[in-house]
Fold this protein.
Amino acid sequence: MALRTFGTLPREIRQQILKNTITPCSSNDPVSWSQAEASQESTVKQWTLTLKLVNKDMEGDMRWVQKEWMERLVREREERYRGWWGGLERFMGDHMRRAHD
């Protein structure tokens, strides 16, 4: 029976495992969003480099994983800003309606 290692797993499984090795942190404070995003981007880049150093054969997998991580950060940022601006628009609309009543 052949020895099974991480490297012998199908690529899709390896990539999913690697993708789950980092957990994004989120902030509900709009003032700290840019700081949190910069920190997350830095963490993603550093973790990608670290995992590439573990095994050179993972370099291709890590390119895909890093792309997925960065796309997730962008999606989360867009959702936060959409939610924040939507809340602000509702607040301003309510405020303006009360001012005209």
In short: The chain has a mean pLDDT of 80.
